[in-house]
Amino acid sequence: MSNIKFVNVNKEVVASTGANLRQKAIENGIDIYKMWAKMTNCSGCGQCGTCAVEIVEGMENLSPLTAAEKSLLKKKPDNFRLACQTLVNGPVSVIVKP
User: With a threshold of 0.90, does the pTM exceed it?
Assistant: First the structure.
């Protein structure tokens, strides 16, 4: 089991090892999309980049970057991930809508 702390919404959830970060956020009522992205996101397929989150702590507890992330996040800081492509394997702290 892993704790995911959503820092800027002051919420912490428990996830099983290997859980998808985007799915856990949605299941727990945490909005990860900015205004227009709520309607135009790719539903977790790793094609749009609208679910980008900032990892504050626990980057080592996440799955490796996917090819989609390397492409879509190349102009973002190194601690950004796509929630839809990220699997959680330990405690992590996240900022949504950075």
Answer: yes
